[in-house]
From TrEMBL:
Family, per entry: Belongs to the DedA family.
GO cellular component, one term: plasma membrane
Name of the protein in question: VTT domain-containing protein
Keyword Membrane: yes
InterPro entries per record: DedA-like (IPR032818), VTT_dom (IPR032816)
Membrane topology of the entry: Multi-pass membrane protein
Membrane-spanning segments: 27-49, 56-82, 122-144, 156-177, 189-206
Every VTT domain range: 49-174
Location, primary (coarse class): membrane
Intracellular or extracellular location(s): Cell membrane
Pfam families referenced in this protein's UniProt entry, alphabetically: VTT_dom
Keywords of the record: Cell membrane, Membrane, Transmembrane, Transmembrane helix
Amino acid sequence: MELLGFLVDFILHVDKYLETFVATYGAWVYALLFLIIFVETGVVVMPFLPGDSLLFVVGAMCGVGLMDYSLTVPLLLAAAILGNQSNYTIGRYFGPKVFHWEDSRYFNRKAFNQAHAFYEKYGGITIVAARFMPFLRTFAPFVAGVAEMTRSKFTFYDVLGGALWVGGIVTAGYFFGSVPWVKANLDKIIWAMILIPGLIVLWGAWKGRGKAAAKLQAGG
């Protein structure tokens, strides 16, 4: 429970934690950020790390001179691409065995099913769209590996999605993070960046389930 409380506090006040880390450890913040982005995108059991809000806050810190924008963007882009490549490789290795795994503290079966349904409907573009959706972001490359998408095709979507995600959100933070209204309402913005994509995913899953049930009834 203490770890969960810390994670929630870190996600909602990531700006304060990063500012403290920069003041204490300086350039080591780049290594920390690389690790967070790589783990969130590259380890299928770590879908709860604060990707979107973290990138926005990092951009804001670049905007006020606490971090180097020209170093941060390519570094975090590399972390996002390599993380997805790692996740894809894990999916290719385990393949069809995944469909028999049960939900556990290390594997979120529901999130996997949602990502798989999204992938089946939209194919490769899922890799790009999922970058902006918590939980799906972690499972989409894994699902692509399970579905045996070719490495070259996956890499194309991986790089494109990573560039839009990292470049777009860090740049938004760079230009808007220091605006007084944004600074005053940063906690609300973080909540919005978590909840809105999550609601979109839930709505899509509910809609997909409704269509599947209708097909089943029509077939019966």
